[in-house]
Amino acid sequence: MAMISMNKVSKYYGSFQVLADCTTQVAKGEVIVVCGPSGSGKSTLIKCVNGLEPFQSGEIIVNGVSVGDPRTKLSQLRSTVGMVFQNFELFPHMRIIENLSIAQIKVLGRSEGEARAKAASLLDRVGLSEQAEKYPGQLSGGQQQRVAIARALAMDPICMLFDEPTSALDPEMVNEVLDVMTELAKEGMTMMCVTHEMGFAKRVATRVIFMDQGRIVEDDSKDAFFEAARSQRAQQFLAKILHH
Amino acid sequence: MAYNWNWDVFLQPTATGDDTYLGWMFYGLKMTIALSLSAWVIALALGAVVGVLRTVPNKWLSGFAAAYVEVFRNIPLLVQLFLWYFVMPELLPVDWGNALKQTNPVLQQFLASMLCLALFTSARVAEQVRSGINSLPPGQKNAGLAMGFTLPQTYRFVLLPMAVRLIIPPLTSEFLNIFKNSAVCSTIGLLELAAQGRQLVDYTAQPYESFIAVTLAYLLINVVVMFGMRWVEAHVRVPGYIGGK
């Protein structure tokens, strides 16, 4: 059974259609890169997966739970789906260690000691043990984004969503974040990543989804996508993004 | 101008003989502080709730909160005070109204004044809480929800702690205002600071001394509040956050 399954998902802002009949499946352990021009609906699509954006028609099933069903307890579902944002969105008034432990305590009901131990080991894993007692504003962008990834992992998610995780970073900090993501992918984490990092896509992705104007235009293995994108729109996009 | 300055007037026994005029001033000062502080506590609590409700997705709740704010900040404070003091007891069930009218008149004045100041100020606090929440990056709410927090938890752990920090400066103004606004309550006979000042003028014919004393007393209160709030602001400052450090 697919970890994430979308069936004809459509979303409108008023009369403007943001997503049009998006259908795809993500199997356990797959790494999907979602790309496309800005305004094509990629961020909206992955925000639909954990119900941060409502959608008007279609169906999304995450690990057997329907996101759009009004009976679904979204907070419960979201605690199992990790999400990393473009602007990090750490909680600025909490120390790094507290950022990693608060939801473990308040949502998962772990003890303070257990949560902190988990947080410390994850900080170690992303190479930031030294920063545990600092506040987010005292860290660089790259460090903050690694903390954000560790914060999501602290909940032991069944899959991870990345919404342009490197777009707000200085170029020199992009790689430290991509390295953490690459390692995560190698360990078998199911991931959906909205990103323009085509190098990452080539190295790590199992499949690439290309979106344009709210539609999934291409949904193919990465080799097929990079070597022989079928649609003209994707070819144009690749030409622009790869040749400068 | 022939004016006989007489600062000793404060030490003289009052016309009623049971106190000095300085004692009257202290009574007024205590009344002003008790009234303003109790109203402030209620205003903060109500204002926080209403301000949060203004930002929630539920249309009924945010609509109710918007109506609340408009009612209490658009009716002049003096009119609200008269409504609470003169009209409200008539609107209560007859038994309650009569029971209220038989209680200690000072208590009646105090309760009406406290309610009036608290609700008036809560509408203004609510607007500040709302603007504080709305000034946070929109991603913060999503980040809280994405962690699995419920909406109330997201407010409690993510949005409000930062929003409250951001609105400390305007809240300080509101806190200062409530002391100044409390002077309006002298109009229903509550013997707070401003009323005592006027009474002193009537009894001693020393208006300059009386009003200078009243002015200094208000000034003193507000300096204490200002420094207190400044301490709070420094105390909750987030290291590394914009405007922090």
Structure in a nutshell:
The complex is a heterodimer of chains A (244) and B (245). Chain A is α/β, with parallel strands linked by helices and 244 residues long. Chain A contains nine helices and ten strands.
Note down, in words, how this protein is organized:
The complex is a heterodimer of chains A (244) and B (245). Chain A contains 9 helices and 10 strands. By secondary structure, chain A is of the alpha/beta class. Chain A has a 6-stranded mixed beta sheet, sandwiched between helices. A 4-stranded antiparallel beta sheet of chain A has the order 2-1-4-5, covered by helices on one side. In chain A, β9 and β10 form a beta hairpin. Chain A starts with a strand and ends with a helix. In chain A, 47% of the residues are buried. Chain B has 245 residues and is mostly helical. Chain B has a single domain, classed as MetI-like (MetI-like fold), CATH 1.10.3720.10. Chain B is flat and about 70 Å long. The mean pLDDT of chain B is 93. The chains are: A alpha/beta (244), B mainly alpha (245). Chains A and B meet through α2, β6 and α3 of A and α6 and α7 of B.
Radius of gyration of chain B: 22 Å
Query: Spans of chain B of 5+ residues with little confidence (pLDDT < 50)?
Result: none
Average of per-residue pLDDT values of chain A: 94
Q: Please trace the helix and strand order of chain A, writing H or E for each element.
A: EEEHEEHEHHHEHEHEEHH
Q: SS-based structural class of chain A?
A: alpha/beta
The count of DSSP E runs of length 2 or more, i.e. the number of strands of chain A, is 10
Q: What coarse outline of chain A follows from CA principal-axis ratios?
A: globular
Q: Characterize the main sheet of chain B.
A: none
Give the proportion of residues in helices of chain B: over 70%
